[in-house]
Design brief:
38% of the residues lie in helices and 14% in strands. It is of the alpha/beta class.
Length: 329
């Protein structure tokens, strides 16, 4: 009985919270003024958790990708800052983490997700839409009708079927992250004289079971994705890999390295003065990777060529580079 009453009270408290919207009456010309003219790309890196950066088994390799990525981005003229967020979920439930970030509400269960996505809460993407950005959802993991998508106020949504992929899936992952980012470039970002874009892109290559994994390709090799037909057939099946915890952990690490390399290389090859990339983990991976006592923390990084963007967040105390340290807030 007490559990039921507590659950009902939690639902009511959350419903009341969704009705409180501090920005609903803000005039559009006063929203997001520090990002005027920028193309803001918000990327969720699947299962990219704090353990990927700090677990001793991963820290050298993943940390090396992040350190080298910071140097490469700086060479390309980009600064970056990183910190930590606490996810409302772990080991799964990406939609809870995504709705938490985009709504500004703590969405840690299905009831809250249904409540918030059926409300008229102003979302982050909705705020960009009100301020005259084109808002785009690039959703390789969406394979069927997605009525909740209306909540996020996207002008356009590209699901699996709209992204033009002609390869095979990689276990759960419908397409490699490199193809997802290239499809976004072709469909939206490369359009000449396009209006400022705000894009939300949940990547999928680092989703369990982490086998098989795509190989890194030059961007001009990717084409329509049919090159991945053979790639998706290479490697041991999940049921074999998951017999061995060490192999699972290795495959997880490799998937994170691939996703991070995709983003770093995307900025190098397609970024311009107006790009502001924000990338973060949605949640920690499964406990077979993290162990039973891992936190719910995930890394988050901001990458921008315009120093004024990073100046606006200087008071946050985030660490320079795309690798947050133990002392990063």
């Amino acid at each position: 009985g007490r559990q039921v009453v507590s659950s009902l009270r939690d639902r009511q408290d959350f419903a009341d919270e969704t009705a409180v919207d501090a920005f609903r009456d803000t005039p559009p010309d006063q929203l997001l003024t520090g990002l005027r003219g920028k193309d803001v790309v918000l990327v969720f890196v699947e299962s990219y958790g704090r353990s990927a950066v700090e677990d001793p088994e991963f820290a050298t390799q993943v940390g090396g990708v992040l350190d080298e990525g910071t140097r490469r981005l700086a060479t390309a003229g980009y600064g970056s800052r990183s910190g930590w967020l606490t996810s409302p979920t772990s080991g799964g439930g990406s939609w809870l983490a995504q709705s938490t970030l985009l709504s500004g509400l703590w969405v840690n269960n299905e009831q809250r997700f249904r409540t918030v996505t059926s409300s008229d809460r102003l979302t982050l993407s909705g705020a960009f839409a009100r301020a005259d950005w084109d808002t785009v959802g690039v959703m390789p993991g969406i394979t069927r009708a997605w009525p909740e998508g209306r909540f996020y106020d996207f002008d356009r949504v590209y699901d699996l079927h709209a992204l033009g992929y002609h390869g095979l899936g990689f276990s759960w992952a419908t397409m490699p992250d490199q193809f997802t980012m290239l499809a976004f470039e072709r469909l939206e970002n490369a359009k000449p004289a396009h209006p400022p874009l705000m894009s939300v892109i949940p990547l999928v290559s680092s989703h369990g079971p982490w086998t098989p994994l795509p190989k890194w390709l030059d961007w001009d090799e990717i084409g329509d994705g049919s090159i991945y037909i053979n790639e998706a057939r290479v490697g041991d099946p999940p049921e074999e890999v998951w017999k061995d915890q060490d192999r699972v952990r290795t495959q997880y690490r490799l998937s994170i390295e691939y996703s991070l390399e995709t983003l770093i290389s995307y900025v190098e090859n397609f970024g311009d003065d107006n790009l502001v990339l924000v990338f973060l983990g949605d949640h920690q991976p499964a406990r077979i990777v993290t162990g039973p006592d891992a936190s719910l923390d995930v890394p988050i990084s901001i990458v921008a060529r315009d120093p004024a963007v990073l100046d606006r967040v200087s008071s946050w105390g985030w660490q320079e580079g795309i690798k947050p340290g133990p002392a990063s807030p």
